[in-house]
Amino acid sequence: MERNNLLVVVDKLIKENYFHCEWGIEWREQRHYLELIFQFNLPNPNHFELIDIYGNQYNQNPVPFEVRAIIYDEELIKVEGKHYLKTVPVSRDTGIMYGELFALIRYLKVLTAEVPLKWTEYLANIPTTRFSIEWREDEFQKMRETLVNTSRYSESQVFFPQFN
């Protein structure tokens, strides 16, 4: 029986969802995790001084902004969620359901589509606000439930790539 490859499935799902930003997938074979990276160049016409979560300062136009999610082997590594929008632990033995990946990518599409509007709102309120994109678990679960109720949630298992 052929096992669904997590790397191939995630790449396919991201391509099918047409994200309106630069994106990439980084597979770390030795540590068994997959990072999903969505990058934006956001306009900063007034050259406001901005500091990211890593302490880097920017005042150029445009300003780089990244959203990251990580899918990882829960038995091999521990992940601190503070640098990721979403952390998704996966069992090496049981994998993850295709429907769960489908819901994850669909919801990431929704969140990344909000970035330009949220950025515009942020620029109008500097310095009283902090720019960030937040994972809203209740919205994700509603999307997931809709997929299940409309028979678009596949329970077929997807696994990390296996290499010799």
UniProtKB/TrEMBL annotation:
UniProt-listed Pfam families: DUF3013
Record-linked InterPro entries: DUF3013
Protein name: DUF3013 family protein
Organism: Fundicoccus ignavus
